[in-house]
Amino acid sequence: MIEYIWKRLLQSVVTLFIIVTAVFLLLRLLPEEGYLGAAADKMTPEQQEIYLTNLGLRDPILVQLGNFYIDLLRGDFGKSITYRTDVPVMDIISDKIMYSLTFGVAAVIVSILIGVPLGILMAQFKGRWLDRLGTGYIVFIVAVPSMVYFLLIQVYITDFFNLPMLFDEDRPITWVLPLISLSLGPIASYAMWMRRYMVDELNKDYIKLARAKGVKERTIMFRHVLRNAFIPLSQYLPATILLTITGSIYIESLYSIPGMGGLLVDAIQRQDNPLVQALVLIFSSLGIIGLFLGDVLMALVDPRIKFGKGESVR
Amino acid sequence: MGLYSEEIRNITDKSTEQLFEFAAQDEDQAEKIGYSNYSYWRSTWQSFLKNKVAVTLLILVLALVLFVLIQPYLPNQKSPTEIYLDPDTGYQARNVKPNEDFWFGTNSIGQDLWSRIWAGTRTSLFIGVVVAVVEAIIGIAVGALWGYSRKLEGTITHVYNVFENIPTIIVLILMSLILRPSISTIIIAMCITGWVEMARFIRNQIVILRDREYNLASRTLGTPTSRIILKNLLPYLISIIMLRMSLAIPFAIGSEVFLTYIGLGLPVSEPSLGNLINEGRVLMMSPDLRYQLLFPSIVLSFITISFYIIGNAFADAADPKNHV
C-alpha cells in the first residue's frame, strides 16, 4: 500500500507538471492586446512595448517558464495583471474561497442526505409510483439546462415568498435558494447512481440466498445491499467535496455571491496569466488528490479492493 | 406407489399400435428445424415499439426535425435576422407581444422570435448531433484500443489523465478566443473535450469483457484483433453506447447555452437556442417580457428530454437480455 501511494504521488506530480506547462504554453497563444486591458488605447506603441517587456513577455518562452517554476517553488504565485492589478493572486483567491467552499460543502451534504435515501427508496419500490416520480425528476434535471431552472427558481420563488433576490451574507434566508439550486443536480445524480447500483446488487445470487434463508429484508438492505452499492459512489466523494471550491458560475452570478465561480473564466478572458495558472494548479491538484483519496476511501469501504503489488489498479 | 403403478399398467394395456401413426415426410418442416428467424435489429425495434412514451416522443422529434428543416420555405415566414419596423411609427418593433403577425412576439431589437426559435433549433440540433457522433466515433475507437491493447494502456492512461485534469472550461475558452466564435469553433471545442469521457467509459467495459472465455477461444483460433473488437466486443456495448449518445446531445446543447452565457457562444447574428435563452435571461426581471425566455426554454427542454427518454428506451431495447 505504501509503495503504491508513493508511486501514485510521483505520477501525480508528473501529471500536474504536464498540465501546468500545457496551460502555460496555451496561454501564450492569446493575442497580446489582452494584457493591456482597457488602458490599451491610451498607450503609445512604445509604452505598450515597455509594459509588455516589464511583464516578462519578451523573454524567450523557456525563460518565462523557468521563472514561473522558480517562483512557484518559493511559494510565490505572482501578482495579478489585469483582474486586480498588482494584487498577489493568492489574496484574490483567499478572499473568495470561503464563500464557494461553504456553499459547496453544504450542497454536498444536503444532496447526499436527500439523494442517497431517494435512490434507496426508488430501488426498493422499483416500478412503483415513487420510482416513476424520482425518474421523472432525474430526467428533468439531466435534460433541462441548469440555467433555465436556476433562473425560474430565482425569479418565481423569490416572487412567491417575497424574498430578496440577491445574496446577503448577514441574512440567513438568502442562503437558502442558492443552496437548494446548487443541490438539485447532485441530488438527481446521487439518486440515479444509488438506484442503479442497488438494483444491480439486489439481483445478485447471494441476496436471493439470504432471502431464501429468511434474513430480514431490513438487514439485507442495510447490511449487504447498501454497503456494496456505496462502494462505487465512495470513489467520487472526495473529489466532489474538494472541487466544490471552484464554485458555481451560474449560481454565484445569479445571486451575486462573491465566490470563486466564474473567477477562472474572468481571469482567462482578461488574460491574467498568473491568476489563471494559480487557479489551474489549485484545481488540478485538488482533482488529482480527490481521485487518489477516492481510491483510498474505496479500499477502506471494501476490504476486497487492494492496491498492492501485482494487483490490478482500478 | 401401488395406485400409480396400477394406472400405468392400465395405460400400457390400452396402448395399441393403432394409436400411433407415421407422419409423412414434410420437406418444408424439415427446413425449419434448427432455424430461428431471430434478427437482432428487428427484435430491438420490436421491443422499442412497446415503449409507448418513447415512440410518441420519437414521432414528435422526427416531426420537429422535419418542420425545422422545411420551416423557412413555408409561406408567410419572416427572416430570423431581419429587424422589423413598426408600420405606424417607423421605429423598430421592439418587444412586441405575441400576436397574429409575430406569433412568438419580437425581441428587444425587433426580430421575429418565431423564426429565430426555429433557426436556433436548427443550429443547436446540428451542433448536438455532430458533436455526439464525432464523440462516439473517436471515443469508441480510442476506448477500444485503450481497453484491448495492453501495450498502449500506459500511454493512453497518461494522455487521459492530462486531458481529464485540464479544466474543460480552459480549453473551451482558449478555443473560442483563438478561433473566433462560430459554429465550427463550438463543434471543434466540444469534440476536443467530449471524447475523453466516452473513451474511458468504453475502455472500462472492454476491460471487463476482453478476457472472457469466448474471446480467449477466438484468440486461440487466430481471429484478427480488429475482428474480435468489432464482432465480439462492440456488439455487447451497443446499448450503453446508445445511452451515452442520447445523453451527449442534451449535453452538447447545454454546453452551447453555457458558452453563450459566459460570452463565448455564437454571435447574435447566428441564432441558436443558447443565445436565444441568453437574450431571454437578461429580460427575465420584467414579467411582461418573460415569454422571450419561456419559448426557447420550452423548445430546448422538449428536445433534450425527448432525446434522453428515446435514448434510454432504445438502450433497453438494444440489450439482447430483454429480447423475447
From TrEMBL, chain A:
Cellular component, GO, one term: plasma membrane
Gene3D superfamilies: MetI-like
Organism, as annotated: Ureibacillus thermophilus
InterPro entries according to UniProt: BPD_transp_1_N, MetI-like, MetI-like_sf
Membrane topology note: Multi-pass membrane protein
Major localization listed first in the record, in broad terms: membrane
Coiled coil ranges: none
Transmembrane segments: 12-30, 97-121, 133-153, 173-193, 236-255, 275-301
Compartment(s) where it occurs, according to its Swiss-Prot or TrEMBL record: Cell membrane
GO biological process, one term: transmembrane transport
Domain ABC transmembrane type-1: 97-294
UniProt entry keywords in alphabetical sequence: Cell membrane, Membrane, Transmembrane, Transmembrane helix, Transport
Protein name: ABC transporter permease
Similarity comment text for this entry: Belongs to the binding-protein-dependent transport system permease family.
Annotated PROSITE patterns: ABC_TM1
One Pfam family, short name: BPD_transp_1_N
PANTHER family: INNER MEMBRANE ABC TRANSPORTER, OLIGOPEPTIDE TRANSPORT SYSTEM PERMEASE PROTEIN APPB
From TrEMBL, chain B:
Membrane topology: Multi-pass membrane protein
Family per record: Belongs to the binding-protein-dependent transport system permease family. OppBC subfamily.
Gene3D superfamilies: MetI-like (1.10.3720.10)
ABC transmembrane type-1 domain location: 121-311
UniProt-annotated location(s): Cell membrane
Stated name of the protein: ABC transporter permease
Transmembrane segments: 53-74, 125-149, 169-196, 233-253, 293-315
GO annotation terms (biological process): peptide transport; protein transport; transmembrane transport
Lineage: Bacteria, Bacillati, Bacillota, Bacilli, Bacillales
InterPro entries: BP-dependent_transpt_permease (IPR050366), MetI-like (IPR000515), MetI-like_sf (IPR035906), OppC_N (IPR025966)
Gene Ontology annotations for the cellular component aspect, listed alphabetically: plasma membrane
Organism in which the protein naturally occurs: Ureibacillus thermophilus
Key words, A-Z: Cell membrane, Membrane, Peptide transport, Protein transport, Transmembrane, Transmembrane helix, Transport
Pfam families found in the cross-reference section: BPD_transp_1, OppC_N
